[in-house]
């Protein structure tokens, strides 16, 4: 088993994910931090990644939609130590049909001590640490 990370990493790779009701907020946040994010290798789940690429012009590798395996793909990247940070704007007020996948992804990020933000405030702190 790969050992979890023990210290704050030099962030080079980041995944960007958002629940449906939070996609607009994530796209706006990415736009506000575009210059710093452009220095990273970015990944995103299906619709979210596509919107970010189209609306910000950033280069982002789009994986599958979250419910169709995108959350699992990002989880696998975490388990293989191929992802330094996860920005996941969650919607705590919506019931999700793929809640099990979301919990698994967050569990892996916690287990492997991956830098994780679940809202704009924590995501902004992560980006400010890159400067």
The CATH C-level class name: Alpha Beta
Ends distance: 33 Å
CATH topology: Rossmann fold
Structural class label:
alpha/beta
Task: Write a concise keyword list for the protein shown above.
131 residues; alpha/beta; Rossmann fold; 5-stranded parallel β-sheet; lyase; Methylglyoxal synthase
What is the fold's blueprint, element by element?
Elements: E1 13-18, H1 23-32, H2 34-37, E2 41-44, H3 46-56, E3 60-62, H4 70-79, E4 85-89, H5 99-111, E5 115-117, H6 120-130
Parallel strand pairs: 1-2, 1-4, 2-3, 4-5
Active site: 71
Keywords: Lyase
Domain MGS-like: 6-131
Write a structural description.
The mean pLDDT is 91. The protein has 131 residues and is of the alpha/beta class. It contains six helices and five strands. The termini are far apart. A five-stranded parallel beta sheet has the order 3-2-1-4-5, sandwiched between helices. It has one domain: Methylglyoxal synthase-like domain (Rossmann fold, 3-Layer(aba) Sandwich), CATH 3.40.50.1380. Catalyzes the formation of methylglyoxal from dihydroxyacetone phosphate. Belongs to the methylglyoxal synthase family. It is an enzyme of class 4 (lyase).
Offer a quick outline of the entry:
The chain is of the alpha/beta class and 131 residues long.
């Amino acid at each position: 088993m790969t050992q979890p990370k023990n210290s704050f990493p030099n962030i080079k790779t980041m995944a960007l994910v958002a629940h449906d009701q939070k996609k607009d907020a994530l796209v706006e946040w990415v736009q506000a931090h575009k210059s710093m994010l452009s220095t990273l290798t970015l990944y995103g789940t299906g619709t979210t990644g596509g919107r970010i690429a189209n609306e910000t012009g950033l280069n982002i590798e789009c994986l599958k939609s979250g419910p169709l395996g995108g959350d699992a793909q990002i989880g696998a990247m975490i388990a293989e130590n191929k992802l330094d940070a996860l920005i996941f704007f969650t919607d705590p007020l919506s019931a999700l049909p793929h809640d099990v996948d979301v919990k698994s992804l967050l569990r892996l990020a916690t287990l492997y001590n991956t830098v994780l933000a679940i809202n704009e405030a924590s995501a902004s702190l992560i980006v400010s640490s890159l400067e």
